[in-house]
Queue: 3 jobs
Job 1
Amino acid sequence: MTTDTDQDHPCLPGGLIPLDQWKSPETSVHKTVRAGFQDILEQLRSSITPEGRAFEKLDNLPALSAAKLKKFAPEPSAEELANALNQQLEVFRQDGHHNRPVNFLVAPPFSGVPQALVAMNRRVIMPPDNLLMSEQEVSGWWDEQLAGDDWVLPELADFWLRHRSGLSLLKEFFARVALDNAGEGVVGCSSWCWQFWIQYLPELHTGPVTLTCLTGDRLTQWLDYLASGKSGRHLTARMTHDGLYVLPARSKDSKDKYSSFAQDLANVARGNRGVAHAIWQRALRAKPEEDAEQEGAEDTPANGPKCWVAPLDQLSLPSVPHSSGRQCGHILHALLLHNGVSRAQLELVTGIPGQEISLTLARLTRAELINQDAQTSRYQVTPLGYPAARKYLQARGYPVDGF
Amino acid sequence: MGDFGLKDALSSITSTAILEAIAVVVAASLLILVIQKLVPAVASKLSGKPRLYLLALVPLLRLLIIILTIVMVVPILVEPSFENMLAIFGALGLALEFAFKDYANSLIAGIVTLYEMPYRPGDWIEVNGYYGEVRSIGTRAAEIVTLDDTVIVIPHGLLWDTLLANGNDGTDNLMCVAELYLDPNHDVARLRSLFRDVIYTCPLT
């Protein structure tokens, strides 16, 4: 169920939907089989080069300059997304689809929801320094934090640790939410954290909503919106190998031939806007071969900015290093469950000795699967490494999110 | 016809034919050896279902090669007429019936395991009190490695009349049972809650 205000929010194509209505982008059997074989080949390749592979572009075309990249594929605005979310939540309330005082917004990593929630004009509840509080301490802490209404909790995954003593904060929080005893607020929750907690508390019913999956068309609209910004001048983006159009979004009377790039990108990213945006940034090129550029000059529908897009098979995304042990899996899973954790916290939640954690973190960092936040020193999975990390965990039987 | 025509059928075998047949058998054996080494090696680099399917493919390919070898060798040695085939397979049937009854029993059970898949490489199974991980599945028997690192060879023939317990049945999930001793006056609710938290926070779950 999408809401009536879809068209008003180009920064949130498709709007919000109830969590159980989320579907991944549809793809053909041919593409699914091809992706399966590619995945097998990828696993074999990673066993030959045990260090894993960082992002690599396989064409020789020049990438966009930093300034042009910022102009053509800027980071989405947290304020605009916050406004859109606010309005969508309001519509949900007015329509009677959600009448609980606390709204849960569950979204996959890199969706930008936590940043948007911080940008809302509400009181932000930040996690305590000590996540291993006793039950008595936890009760007092929540009493203090939930004293007034109109609060926002940007990322629930920051409030717990997967440790026997690290569950108290969220157990108490969910108990209060279940009794409608937490005031009025909005909670953002990573899909991985949510997956754990709905298994832990199967009777928890909060009516969570989520962002609609970005299909090829929605992704095109969104990228077009980001590139045009406030100037309103649409970016023209064409494929480097065949000149087919990717942007601007196809209009009803358009006779131009369009590439399936956006659809393929949506499939690779499983409709995840952050992952799609990161790959999109790496796919943009300054210019392809000379002849294609000249050909493009004739066909450009408007005199707006132009750039070129490398096909997805010319981009080699990071892969997980081959390992016979469980360290890589445990660490990647812990990072996703907690939306990033410090090295000390990793020791606590995985039970892996510090020395081994350091070695594995170094390998994963070299493969560009994870990075360390300079300010918080927390390790987190990168948007480009996320598809490989998720596939790796799923293949090894780890519980993965539904996105 | 006291020998079912077997003598006539075998009388035409020449030394060249025998050498040729030996060459085919050796080639088939080498191929089986390569498959037995190569496929598990490739499978070990993979994860999830592709790994399981690839491992399950090994006995299937071996059976296929054995059948093809028989189909190729028999016409090399004897003229493939109806009488000769009847004589050869009749004699083979008798030999299997009397001398290799149990072996044939296990071979047939081995074929059944290929499509019924009561166990696959990587499964944890218990047969006749022996518990371990299935290491490989052969034409006649499967090998399991027990917790004390002992290899047990289990003939497939046991399938017909023995109870077989499979702990994970081709999945990644294996329930582990731990026995604990508690104070008789323990707080049941508190301990249940603690155990639940321990299980949910274990990185292996």
Job 2
Amino acid sequence: MIKKAGSIILGIFLLMIPTSFGQETEHFYNVDKEIRVEGKIQRIVMEPRYKDTSPFLIVFLEEKDTKKIYKVEVSPVWFFDQDFYQGEYLMVTGSLTSSEEAGLNVIAREVQCRGETMILRDKHGFPSWRGAKGQMSTKGRRKGKRY
Amino acid sequence: MNKKDLFLFFFFPLLGIVIIFFFLSSINRAYVKDKVEDLVKEQLQATAGILKVNIAHFLSEDYSSEEIFDFYSGEENIYFMALLDEQMEILGWHSRFEGYLPLSQKNIGEQESWTIDSPVGKIFNVFTSFRASDQKTYHVYLGYSLENLELMIIHSRRNFLILFAVVIGIGIIFFLGIYQLQNHFLQKEKEAEAERREKERYKEISAFTSGVAHEIKNPLNSLALLFELLTKKIPPEYKQDISLGSEEVRKISRIIDHFSASLKPLDLKKEDLPFKNLMAEILDTIEQDRITIRYEEEGNIGLHADKGLMSQALLNLLRNSLEATEKGEIWVRAKKHRKKIQITVQDSGKGMSDDEMRQIFDPFFSGKKEGMGIGLFLTKKIVEAHDGSIECKSRLGKGTSFTIQIPGG
């Protein structure tokens, strides 16, 4: 049911966005700018990110100590098979792609939640959904339910 | 099966060949792989050089970096590319994979090209600089797919494995063959040795038996003469007893004659014989009131043999079959088989046990109540004197067949 409702919302959302996107100059997985952020989920949205690709799952994360808000780009929605909830704690390892206009953006490589680690990209930033297997790999203990 | 021979003539040589093949092939594959990799990298660097010139040209024509990347976005082998200014600021970039541009300051400056792994295979990275017409220095960062090279390596590995399996297969067949040959040779050598020993033993027994026969024959002759004299001189009421004694002496003498004949080496007088005529003469000497002897031959069979001895050999076989058969038929068949004449005498008699079959050609062995056991021994001796062989097959209650093979045809 949740999945169906999500699909309808996503459909409406997709109609509203422009069909093509230029790749922002600094918006790539920069291995030299890798950081680790731990914080609480403030909200979850779906946004188109790259040209000719499906929307991405974006998590707004409030950093635990500094209370700064990080906009974490997780993965395409179809690829991510875990469920996050508002108020949950996440630990994200990824590349910081901040700019004045976009704020603090993080492209996630690994996301840790409820003791489980979800691997989204390899160490160079290659997206797992474009790999040979095309399936998200996880490690650690599994908690929570699937969609 | 000899374990030592198995290792010596099969496992070790096979293992040796497999190891040598594997070793040489691996060295060769590694060498070819390195050379091909070098060649591909040189090619890609040359391509990057051309690309650099083209980009410089586009920049001089005031194309934006986005427009420039649009020209190359259709190139399947280019996974990503980026244009950087003098301060290493990215002016624009393009990637086939979302957000994937593995550019790191660690790599820049140290080398012009390097390779990284990715889930879609190895990617060859080139970082190269050029000066555009505006006299500014630009840098181009490119990532080429090495997918084709990897496919080639996979194919090479697969071909190697196929070849390796073929070599192992051929090696197994080849060395198994050598091992079998070696086994066969050893077996034959053993058989030849056993035959030689048997012949020597036979020679000794023959010499001894001939001596004994000779020693017995002289007193027997005297005894026969004595009986003849007695027959003339004794009263008529004892004549029957003396006659019986004389007959027994003659019997002993006949037995000794048979022994002596069987021990003597055969003196062959070979001639060309139509087998049909030989059989006709043999069949004339046999009474066929109870059992019918049937004869057939494939084509005209001619023998090159000693007529008297060959007749005796066949007669012995036929007599043996007649004595073993209560009713039915006996078949004599002759045919040419692989440069040999094959003669089979087959009856439907009582047959023989395996124990009897093993001893059937031994001298003085007989399965009958009466008989000296010389007939089949002599038959074998005659056949072997003609460079032939004889074998016997029999099933209890079903019958027996003897097959002679002698050169000819």
Job 3
Amino acid sequence: MRKYSYLEHICDIRLKVEADSMDEFFKAALDGMNSIIAGGDVEGSPEDSVMKICVESMDYTCLLIDFLSEVLLLTQSHYSIFSRIDIESLTSSRIEAVLHGTFVEGFDEDIKAVTYHEAEVTKNEQGNYESVIVFDI
Amino acid sequence: MIKITDMRKKAPYMWEIEKSFRNDMNVPARIFATREMLDDVLKDRSVEQLVNVATLRGIQSAAIVMPDVHEGYGFPIGGVAATLWPSGVISPGGIGYDINCGVRLVKSQLELSDVKSRIKLLGAALYTSIPSGVGKGGDILLSESKLDEVLRYGARKMVQKDYGFEADIEHTESHGCLDNADPDMVSSHAKKRGEDQLGTMGAGNHFVEVDVVEEIYDEECAKAYGLFENQVTVLIHTGSRGLGHQVATDYIKIMMGKMRDYGIVVPDRELACAPFDSPEGQNYFGAMAAAANFAWANRQAIMHSVRLAWRDIFGGRLEDLELLYDVAHNIAKIETHMIDGQPKKVIVHRKGATRAFGPGNPEVPQNYRAVGQPVIIPGSMGTASFVLAGANRSMELSFGSSCHGAGRQMSRSEAKRRVDATSIISELERRGIHIQAGSLKGVAEEAPQAYKDVESVVDVVHQAGIAKKVAKLRPLMVIKG
């Protein structure tokens, strides 16, 4: 199970992300970010561009934000939306994955940055991982 | 939960939360607002964020917000924080992701009656010649060595390459170039994001707007600035684009990893910071200055496109459009201010706040020095913008800083739910304001009702003595991404 939803924010975009495993949790966060960038579902084949990434950080919370920042950078640099991800390894301080993307001509929303503000990876009462993520628009 | 009763009125339009309010505060939290505005300010978490800023190591006098304050991430928008040089902290979050986002006001010698019949032609020409919108690159593709020159020399480099005139440099804050810029401190990732973005506007609240001077409040200042009633002007609002965003992202991560080594604990990760005189602090300051220079070069390149389009439509020479002034509203500067009766060097963080130096300050261009620095306050799409003159009281109250705009009061999603973009465009058209936009969603998000009343915001800084009103500009044409 993985899902994301939009919460209110006065000037930026605030997402709530939830999943029943850490792999799915990172995928849910990526789904959420892509929905902002693409303005909905991404159409086309996610095999236009394939990239391997490795991100290291201090803890799951920072790793989540740093991972999204890295994907955002690749998205904006290569005009490619990475809608499929194969996670090869994931620990609290490191993620290795292969991203599969679709080339696009432009984006629906210009995300300036993925912020650490309000981000906190925790387990909720249902035993699912969850966090809020604020995107600077 | 902070309440109105936690605030004390210290002077007209100035409220403070005492340092004793929370035991980790190093200074009071100061808010410029009317009593009525405070109720709205307390609806979001901006004051709580201001209290967090008051805990920063080395912060001096007070953590300050302007009347256009709203909630940000870490720092509130509309904030000013000065930390003691050289050991106080520098915080990328106190400058923001869009480093040197700012505004540039260009003045023509034409009046409304001279341009009225061709205003839509001008709008179309501007929309075509200035790349705008989400993820849009421009025609100026820079090699890494050329980009480094832009990062080092800012607007100066653009003028050297015939994208402007020497007088433009004289009328840009810091002459459009921070001397401490160090392109080597800007990551290759950041450079990659900026390589095709010079001369592009971007999306969101960025715009190019054609205005008419509707009202002059102060004849002496208006004369010094070369403003007169019915004069047509052009306002440019944009920043350092993806390059600046990536610099901030890179250094927030670096500083978060080093804070423990410096014994720094912050109540919000987005307040990540490092001592200014640490290697991380110095590296960020060099990278931030490079991104600020990129932003000044960007606004210079856009102004050049405006001049070309203007000449095509109205004839004349490129230099007939003169730069009145260019100000940053997301930046950190080393400045000297009087603190407890002593002059002290401080690192002034302005995040959604405009420098507002008063008469006589050597940083103010020679031809404006007698009246003070121009302070340019853009309104929302379809509402007035204002030109103010910095006043010396700003040095006592706000580290020489003023507000930067209207300030949002409605979230983007609420604006999209409540506003029909097509109706807004029609309504503005009826009022003589033509919108040329790449996205209806963007128009809804930036609708006038999504913002506070800019006139009330400007009145607070005027009444508080921070800056005085000089002129009101009414929009004729708004170009957005």
